[in-house]
Amino acid sequence: MPNSAHKNSISIAVMPGDGIGPEVMKPAIALMDRALERTGGPKLSYEELDAGAECYRRTGTPMSEEVFEKAAAADAILFGAMGLPDVRRPDGIEIAPQLDLRFRLELFAGVRPVRTIPGAPTPLADPRAKNLDFVLIRESTEGLFTSRGKGEVTPDYVRETWEITRAGSERLFDFALQLGRRRKAKGSPGSVACVDKSGVFRAFAFFRQIFFERAKAFPDIDARAFNVDATALDLIRRPWIFDVLVTENQFGDILSDAGAALMGGMGMAPSADIGLTHGLFQPCHGTAPDIVGMGKANPTAMILSAAMMLDWLGETKQLPSCGAAADLLQRAVDAAFAPGDLRPFELGGEAGTQAITDRVATQLEALPLEA
Ligand SMILES: NC(=O)c1ccc[n+]([C@@H]2O[C@H](COP(=O)([O-])OP(=O)(O)OC[C@H]3O[C@@H](n4cnc5c(N)ncnc54)[C@H](O)[C@@H]3O)[C@@H](O)[C@H]2O)c1
């Protein structure tokens, strides 16, 4: 269990990881600290932990038990990105401590906001796609991913299977429905949709049935169900119809990258992995080996993930100054892109890590504390 109840400061396990992970982590921490200073928030104490593909190459383990224990004991985990395509275990798959952390800490709700930032380049021309604000919840401890490392493989046949439990689905849907309710209180439509493939798989008929059972306790929420293939279509055709989407692990993995594309690219998409006792915050992107060391990494997703962490700490520890710092940081990112001339490399522009960080830092000083 995280241990801040016994301490004054808030402890953050920092896991920068591989590739561009450390490059985006550094500015995100500096900006987060400054936002907290401005709102009079608590001082965060950071402990940097070694894990990832380079760690595996050096030590033979991607994340030691000691590192896992330290991450588990912190009040929150801030995560860069881990894994390198050419660093693989003997069974041929990549190391992925982020998946181990999700399973072992039961971080069942992968929260992937799809919020476009006015002024940032986005791919869809329709003006309604310039103001998207919906959230995809990806179940992160079950589904197809339970098969990871356990699949049956013969020279002629492979088998990897879905696993969905009643308890896992109930806590997932309760989380999504509560989020729908909180968003509705702030003006969102209050619709929560279960995304599945229930016409074909019994697993998803079960999943959908549990969704509607749990939704009965939320009469104020418009509970719906969509097929995953139709959802993929609508993510491109009319993504503005969505409010909260909740889905299985593998479906969520795929759909959330489509969500990142709607925001402009991987470097714009933040995320949080939330459980009943722990929270881990990381950009949706990976280690981007193709741009590592070039100063081209877009830090926006990491900065917004840090803002999500502050928001979560504010809520779970009842620290309004943390929530205010989250809000300030997000508004600073929005203000940095608002003039429309800040174009990250990945979106076809010239702005690298430093230029984007500097813009956000300037706004962080200039903005009033209240929106
Ligand atoms: N959570 C994680 O740690 C995580 C997630 C996904 C992939 N990975 C790992 O990362 C490695 C690379 O995976 P991939 O290439 O499929 O995905 P990736 O997200 O690393 O890169 C996909 C593309 O997006 C670009 N990109 C990603 N983040 C960017 C940023 N912040 N700024 C600018 N451009 C950015 C990359 O340059 C690349 O062209 C693999 O080893 C994979 O296993 C880790």
UniProtKB/TrEMBL annotation:
Domain Isopropylmalate dehydrogenase-like: 11-360
Superkingdom assignment: Bacteria
Keyword RNA-binding included in the entry's annotation: no
Keyword NAD: yes
Keyword annotations of the record: Manganese, Metal-binding, NAD, Oxidoreductase
SMART domains xref list: Iso_dh (SM01329)
Record-linked Gene3D superfamilies: Isopropylmalate Dehydrogenase (3.40.718.10)
MF (Gene Ontology): metal ion binding; oxidoreductase activity
Name of protein: 3-isopropylmalate dehydrogenase
Organism: Alsobacter soli
